Amino acid sequence: MTKTNDEDAPKRQAIREQIDENLKRVYAAALNEELPDRFRDLLAQLKSKEGSGTGSDK
Description:
Blueprint: H1 5-32, H2 37-52
């Protein structure tokens, strides 16, 4: 009564495709989210430090 791997292949492929589409949808939604103010402030601080040459990089 158990299915062989060949019989399960179409079902597994459909599941993979559904997972792929869901991941793409979530990723696209994350890209469209606005950057939180705290992150924006941190990025501005990093840019100002890079511009002033006070970094420890040689």
